[in-house]
Amino acid sequence: MEISSAQRAQILTQALPYIQDYYNKIIVIKYGGNAMVNDDLKQQVMGDIVLLSLVGVKVVLVHGGGPEIDKLLKKVGKSTQFVDGLRVTDKETMDYVQMALAGSVNKCLVNILQMKGGKAMGISGMDGRLIEARTKDARLGFVGEITKINPGPIRDLLEKGYIPVVSTLGCDTNGNVYNINADTAASWIAGALGAECLISMTDVAGILRDKNDPASLIPLIDFRDAAELLEQGVISGGMIPKVECCMDAIRRGVSKVFILDGRIPHSIIVEILSDEGAGTMVVERKP
Q1: Deepest of 50, 68, 187, 202, by most Cβ within 10 A of its Cβ?
Q2: Is 183 a catalytic residue?
Q3: What 3 state SS string does the chain have?
Q4: Mind listing the pLDDT tens digit for each residue in 47-94?
Q5: What CATH number corresponds to the domain at position 153?
Q6: Residue 14, in any domain of the structure
Q7: Is 248 an active-site residue?
Q8: Separation of alpha carbons 117 and 33, rounded Å
Q9: 118 is known as an active-site residue
Q10: Which domain holds residue 211?
Q11: From the candidates 116, 242, 256, 262, which is the catalytic residue?
Q12: pTM beyond cutoff 0.90
């Protein structure tokens, strides 16, 4: 279906109030899942981020890299163990995690953003002590829990017009490096920056009343109601940590959090620059 010039103009005009709402404001995008391993979707997501940046939105991209870490460990013949869904990370594994996250994954995203016409800079949570952390559980080795966010490096990049691309590595005062959950890092970073919103890209439609029925999508939910769905077991499996991080971001002062289906082309633009929506928006409704 071809779109006429008049239709294109109308679409852009309809986006104007949304651009005005987000102009010069910070949004944090947690990027992972299918949108990260599918090359076509990756190109679209990076293009959407550049578009938002060019219309004056300050975008911070926070990424994980589980599939890339798995690929690298397999390549070197190192097995992977998980405890409670978290990767057991010994010192050797941590070296490979750092290589994947701060190296290949981060620089690939930076390169695509720049090829799309954006101005991007890749950093890790170790740079400028952006993410301070400590051991989360001795059984997990160098898996960290965040103790503090120092947002100065990100703010400096934003002020200079860059799109900061953050790999989720943490550090402590003893020089240890930690693997940090990307959802958790995005939540903390969004709170520390006073972000207008946090966007969490997933492989599902959003929060569902029935996990087997995409039509049961909840487009808007108060974070307290989301907590009730967690207690009732309606939200289960891999969605539990994602929703918990969304709730945590609200508690940290982020006004709204979007859980988007990263499998939908241009889901970020649909959510941010239209009233159509592409997932679930989590908010705190005032009494």
Answers
A1: 187
A2: yes
A3: CCCCHHHHHHHHHHHHHHHHHHCCCEEEEEECCHHHHCHHHHHHHHHHHHHHHHCCCEEEEEECCHHHHHHHHHHCCCCCCEECCEECECHHHHHHHHHHHHHHHHHHHHHHHHHCCCCEEEEECCHHHCEEEEECCHHHECEEEEEEECCHHHHHHHHCCCEEEEECEEECCCCCEEECCHHHHHHHHHHHHCCCEEEEEECCCCCECCCCCHHHECCEEEHHHHHHHHHHCCCCCCHHHHHHHHHHHHHCCCCEEEEEECCCCCHHHHHHCCCCCCEEEEECCCC
A4: 999 999 999 999 999 998 888 888 899 999 988 888 777 788 999 999
A5: 3.40.1160.10
A6: no
A7: no
A8: 24
A9: no
A10: 22-283
A11: 242
A12: yes
Q: Has residue 16 been placed in a domain?
A: no
Domain count of the chain? 1
Q: Which of 32, 33, 47, 279 is catalytic?
A: 33
Give the pLDDT score at 16.
87
Residue 8 in any domain: the answer is: no
Q: Phi first, then psi: what are they for 135, rounded to 5°?
A: -60, 130
